[in-house]
Specification:
This protein starts with a helix and ends in a 5-residue tail after the last helix. Helix content is 83%, strand content 0%. It contains five helices and no strands.
Length: 110
């Protein structure tokens, strides 16, 4: 099964989250970091925020073994959202997302 099909299936059925789905979101985040240098924060903020919501939806119904990895990935996305807001000069939003990244990384929903 292709990665795209696997991720789509997991979005429809979060209990199907597996290591390949987690790796997909890690790879996408790495691509966002690379794209930030070329596109800038305004182009990336909406996709990053949308992926945080997808990850949160997955976390709610994922098998127990995948909840902590999903939280860690969500924390990394939230941290990036904070940086993007900071780059846009949106300091209160940057602070909110950075604080949320810390809470999510500590295992709380955020």
């Amino acid at each position: 099964m292709s990665t795209t099909a696997r991720v789509a299936r997991a979005i429809d059925e979060p209990a199907r989250v597996d290591g390949q789905v987690l790796d997909y979101f890690r790879r996408v985040l790495a691509e966002h970091y690379a794209a930030d240098k070329m596109l800038g924060p305004r182009s990336l903020l909406k996709p990053v925020l949308a992926q945080i919501e997808v990850l949160d939806d997955l976390r709610r119904s994922a098998r127990t073994a995948h909840v902590d990895p999903l939280l860690q990935i969500m924390a990394q996305y939230a941290e990036m959202a904070g940086w993007l807001h900071q780059d846009l000069g949106e300091v209160p939003a940057a602070f909110t997302w950075s604080r949320r990244a810390g809470r999510v990384g500590a295992g709380r929903r955020g």
